[in-house]
Write a structure and sequence with these properties.
By secondary structure, the chain is mainly alpha-helical. It has 5 helices and 3 strands, in the order αβααβαβα.
Length: 109
């Protein structure tokens, strides 16, 4: 699967702590992406087997909020995300000094 720089921003959030389960708003805040960009990427990664998800089991009335969908890296996803980050880094770093995985202030690359 081809990984864009935008997709890499999402993968980097998961690679910070590969066993963590993260929900959409948390990922949006970490990446600065809007839902219309984020959720199609999450769905694409899930179809590819890089991410899996599960819906939170809560009492919605007691919690006072909707249940969250949590996403997490699969073993394949961890491996592939690391490879994609290394490939992009190798392509961009010599020419630009770009280091994918290092966000600039404001969550931008």
């Amino acid at each position: 699967m081809q990984v864009t720089l935008t997709a890499l921003r999402v993968l980097n959030v998961f690679l910070e702590e590969p066993t963590a389960h993260r929900y959409g708003l948390e990922i949006m805040k970490a990446t600065g992406l809007q839902s219309g960009t984020l959720y199609p990427l999450l769905a694409r990664f899930e179809r590819a087997g890089w991410l899996a998800s599960s819906k939170e089991q809560i009492d919605v009335k007691a919690e006072g909020r909707p249940a969250r969908r949590y996403y997490f890296l699969t073993a394949e996803g961890t491996r592939e995300a690391r490879l994609a980050r290394a490939e992009i880094s190798a392509q961009l770093q010599p020419a630009t000094g770009f280091m994918p995985g290092k966000l600039l202030p404001g969550g931008q690359y």
